[in-house]
Amino acid sequence: MMAMDLIADFAGNVWKAIGVELVIFGVTICVALAVRITSHGHSAKPTKKLARKSVDTEDEKNEAKTWTQKKAGMGAAGGWRDSAAKAATSNAQTASSQGVAKREPWQLVDDIFSLVQNHPGQRSTGQVLQLYSLLRRFLGLVADNNMQSMDDEKTVTIAEATQHTRQSAVDLYSTLVHCAVRSGQCHIVERLVDDMVQLSVTRSCAFYESTMKQLAGQKHYRLALNIYDRLCADGLEPSAVTCSCLVSFATEIGEHKRALHFFDKLSSMTTPSIRAYMTVLRVHAQQQDWTSSLFILRDMQKRGILLDSLTLNVVLATGVATDNLVEADGLLADADSMGRRIADVVSYNTIIKGYARLGDVAATSKCLERMRKRGLSPNSITFNTMMDAAVRGPNPSDSWDILKEMRQSGFSADKFTCSILIKGLAKQPTAAHVQAAMDLLQDAGNNCDSMLKSTLYHGVLDAASQASDDVLVMQIVSRMRQQNIALNESATKRLRERTGRSSAPGLG
After folding, report:
1. What residues does each domain of the chain span?
2. Each residue of 59-68: pLDDT tens digit?
């Protein structure tokens, strides 16, 4: 009986010990389960979403990659590769992240307008063009055997693509043109117009004129003229403002005949602006057309446009360049007879230049007198041109008298003065003029670069040699050494022959 009691007491103690452990273990299990359930409740949904996003992103990347690869082969038939393949490649990752490959056509249109309105930057323009490259597939504009087209049920009209937006199809293409120009992909513009034609989207005159203006703003004048040709093909007529701009566009790319055509069209519509008149006058100047230049000037007077000195000077320069000096001088006289002063110093210098080419010193002097009577003061160009006339004339020594008058008028000799006077020494070299030329170089030589200075000193040295003045020759050689100007081979040879010595004076 005692043994049984001992066993019972032992079993009771064991049960108590095990029971405590079981309770502790059970509590631990319950707490762990509670924590796990709570954690699972918070994390199960994001985990599922993350997994779904990962799958979707991978699908989108694969589809965008396939689209980019297909895009590269579209140039043969559709011609779109040249216009959007670059944008498609550079924006493939962005397109994938936004999931644009799976968006509906109207969503792509909505995204285009949203990007332009909410993110008006350089980067968004490329994304807009990428979105449009995808939209083209829905619109049935992809015409390439290497590219899988959309299923027939997925092809939509442009009206259907834009029906959920407040913008029209014209607004869409106007936006696309703006993005193409802004992103530097102006070559896309003509492709966009082609798409508009294929989709029967109305192209208004305002659309064409806005497009031309944007292209010209980027100096794509030839593309602007191509757009004008499409405007004409649609049976539209440009406004007077556009015609005025077209005159400048054609002039910029050297299509003078076309520029004159646009000006004639403009003239038939309205009185051209002074800018248009100036542009066409410069065209006539380049074509050496004095008759047409004079006609334009008279037309300006007939239409009551106030002439200015710039307009007059362009026409005068054309007359002088085309050897119509007498008529040009008469035009200058007509301008002087007007109550309002038009002619300026440039006007008179232009006519003086014409007489200088003929070596007519007397005529240049008369022009100088007329200039002063009109209250205009000559400038250094006036005197240099008159010196050139004297050098070309029968008495080159008169140029030195003009130099004296130039200095009395408060002007200093410059490099042009030196070149003109020293050129004249070769005709009538005298010791006095050679000495004067040396003094002139001493005073104004710093205005000449090293090459010109060497040329001028050698010219004076040649004149001194012709004048048979050995003292002047040695002075010039000495001056050249001081200026670190080396004698050229011909000068050295002449000096050796002249002195009969093994070396030229002042050398060695």
Report:
1. 77-202, 425-508
2. 444 444 444 4
